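Table S5 (text form). Sequence records supplied for joint modeling of the two-component complex.
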Amino acid sequence: MSLFEKNLNVLQTVNPDLVRRLEDWVSEEAVEVLLAKDGSPIPKADGACLHSAYHPRDEAEKSVAQFEVIPGKSTVVYGLGFAYHLQALLNKGVDDICVIEPSFAMFHAFMNHVEIEPFLSKVRFVVGMVPEKVPTACGTPPSQWNIFNHKASVRINSAYFECLTRTVSATEFLAVSSLRILVVNPIYGGSLPTAHYCAEALENLGHTVESVRCEDFSDGFHAIKNITSDKTNRQVLDGLFINLMGQAILAKSAEFNPDLILVMAQAPVSPETIGSLKKLNIPLAFWFVEDFRTLTYWKEVAPLYDHFFTIQRGEFFEELDKIGVSDYHYLPQACHPPVHKPLGESAGDCDRYKADLSFMGAAYFNRRQSFPQLVDYDFKIWGTEWNLNTDIGKYVQNANKRLSSEEIVKIYNSGTINLNLHSSTCHSELNPEGDFVNPRTFEISACGGFQLIDHRSELAGMLNVGDEIETFRSISELKEKIDYYLQHEEERNRMAQRARKRVLAEHTIEHRMSDMLTHIVSRRLEQMTERVAKRRDPVEIAISQAGKESELGVFLEGFRGTPDFSLNTVLNSIEKGQGDLSKNEILFLMLDQVTTQKS
Amino acid sequence: MKNILVLTLTRIGDLIQGTPLIAGLRAKHPNAKITQMVSTDFAEFAERIPGVDETIVLNLRQFQGMEGGQRILWVDVYQYLEQFMEEVKSRKFDLVVNLSHSKLSAFINLYLNPKETIGFACNKEGDRMALHPWMQYFGVEPFNRAYNPFNLVEIFARCGDMDPAGETVRIETRPDDRASISELMTEHGIQSDDFLIGIQAGSSLEGRRWPASYFAELIDSLTEKLGAKIILFGVAGESELAGTIRDSVKNKEQVVDLTGKTNITQLTAMLPQCQYLVTNDTGTMHIAAALGVKIVGLFFAHAHPYETGPYAPGHLIFQSRISCAPCSYGVACNNIVCIHSVQPKQVLAMMAEHKQTGKWEWPTNWDTPADMNLVKTEWDQEKRLRLIPLLKHPLELADIFKEAYFHFWPMVLDGKKLGNPKATGEQIVRFMTEHYDCGVWEKIQPALKRKKEELERLIHHSIKGIKTGFTVLKSLSGKKSHALQKLIDEIENIDEEIKNIGLAHPEIKPIAEIFSKRKENFQGNDPLILTKSTIQCYQRLEAESRELLRVLENIEQTFPQALQNEEAKTTLANC
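The corresponding structure-token record, covering 1174 residues in total, follows.
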């Protein structure tokens, strides 16, 4: 057994995820390994040795000599090399170390030449992670980090560690700052619930969130098509409607004065509106939760946003580069556990939703084509746009009526097998090149449901295929797996439970929003810091105007830290109160009457 | 009683309509200092209110247009209110009389914490209260307008426990008032022997205004047929309206536009130069009434002569009689058609007759217009001001109840019974037969019977309430808390029944609502006191329901005979 294999076996017991990723890693360039004068192996990268070519252990001892251990803080080491400095730190009595190494090539070389076992009990290895993920992977918040720089590693990975430094600062900033965030919702469609989840998740993260509820205008928007069948005239009306929505978004932004505007895919935001919003000097982010090949409006808008988030990368990123998008970032879909949850015995009418095989989704081409092959199962289809007069029409349960999130959760909870076939407008079964993962994947898992999902290239990075989730690459394979899993309840349940655990740990909208904010703030930390600092607490303004020592000033002290403080905050607190009114409260109630009369 | 504060923050009309009350307070407490609190808009006029020693002005106008900028406006307003209220509080008022419905006035009263309050108030927890039976009535009146026979003057006066008989509204005139208008009169060519008619075409609420074209038409007739010279009164904001009217009339030289050109002193001096004032329901109307100018009042939209008509005998009031008039409380009408119920020729005819005979009489050869009420103000035998219908409209149930309440409330709100219900019934029927077309009595009688049945139900529920109350008292001495809760639920059900009877039968709703108002005044958490107060409320409801029932029974009994008498009179007359 080679050292690498031995190391892999040992690592498997404490960090199987890292092992899997290491195995998946495709070697692009190997790290050159030399022997130092004392015979120790040392890595060489970018033409430079990462440790002393003479006595790497002595060098390491010297480098850690000045490092001060701070009680209560975790030691975080930037750069692995061949871990001579790690050993020196351990020798110094430091335990509970987290080492951050950007390069799998370096880690691979390390595993080939250094025995990992002595480190494993005290060192956590964070390898090949995008900087935004590192703070979570480290397990301790950056504010608790005591950083040791392995200078040679930091030098050859300067871009990565600079980015990590910014990310760490952003994370620290976000841990103590509440931003004001405006979410612009779409008028309707699949991204609307996501917009709601984003707003809730951002609030849960401690930010002050308001939404432009474009969905409130949906009846009006849809009514336009009943006005005229003349396409040109309809386009004019649609344009005017979009302009109106743009003005509404501007009005809301002007009043709320957010630190960040998050526009959801399909939101009615025209290039003109983006131009006007930019004049407010508020960062604009867009989450394009769409397939870039199917919906191409990103070409017009992506370059206009400050931050563009996508559920696809690779080829999409190349396309975004081509059109000059300055900042884009991969941000996959996710679930929202407050909504997507196991219902247990509490769901009274779940029988209606019970089926061996259950599918929830719209009648896209590939589904229409392939589902007739599944009619030999106890199959229930839920969703919209199905032709009820076809072979599969009678399997459609809801007569194409739109389903609420609550109902969808019942469906995910009740299906023995939830079929998750990503939509395609041009494949008769599934898209062999499909990359992104739909939200349904995470939502079913969050509900504790078992699913069979078509193969997607991004899936393996998010859920462990075969262990946490089962895939298929054709409808015939799907049928085989349906047959198998219908017979193996225990396996189904075990897999579903693992998936749920993973999804809750890594794939919630709250995780995504946290990543998104970290990404944005890391790129505009100064601006955000200034905005938050400049935003004087309205309570503070009121207190200083009233006089700190005045009765009013003293009374208002009790409202410090109240988000979005205003006169109404005080008035609401009085309404909620009980017992005799105080002098201040009576005056505030008088003030309420006076201001009401004035308005 | 040394120190009295009267809160009048709402309207100029309230200031004037409160003058008999202030006179009453002055008579009752000759040595007390009477202070009034008014808002800036009425500060100048408030100096004219007789019997007041000092006026305090709540100056919120200073903050108008101050939004924006670096400062938080509400902090400034708060600090002003604090300073203002502390100063007022330092005067240690023994009695606050609050003539406003507003929450602001209730909070002011709470802040001042006087020994005694009359009027709208709130308790220490901020819950609404109405202190004084007539203020409780004042609280329910806006929601029962069709059944209210009382002018605010009478309601306010009775709040001060004074008899309004013979009282009129007053404002102070000063020796130098006349001098203030000599220049104005010269400038506009007004001679002392001109036959002057004042017109107040504006009003604070636009919807209450008679159309400018009707005013113009009336002015043309008044100038042409009666040889009148017209003075247009109003504030500066009404100049455009006055301009429109003046532009539309033929004899422009006979029209003097004084809108925005008179201060309070000049207005006070100028109004008495006029023989008549044709006016919407306005502050100017009340000033004119106080100065003895004959008023031709035009009441539209929310304006209701029974509440805010000129309080003195000898005036004339036109009002629309369409089904929605007057507007309900809080309604903002978007199609004010009631202003067309009164036509310029009708106003002219009445004024021409009055100029000639000194009487308000509808032309005998004219039909009774179904959509118009026409009333004159007159003292009755007891010197209480009445609105006397000049058009005999078919009698309606509401007319009977309104008239019954005219006799009923002053007695029962004082905790008394009608001395001679039979005589009262006869008095009411006499008023009905004199001023209404009572040929429809047979149609009304079954409806009246039904209302009597509902009063019986009110009595039944109040007795049930009394019994339950006494059971609660008994159970309070025991320890059966579950039984107590059941009784409390029962009381809630009884109250719900009482409320529902009122809702379903608007004619008796004032009684049901007064009952609720009284319950709002309950203080503290002592179950014994609360239960005793509850029992008292049911007892009063029972007594009041019985009293009204007696009145209605007497009306019912008296009507047939009265109708026969009327018939006989008519037959005789025809012979």
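Note: Residues 536-598 of chain A form one domain.
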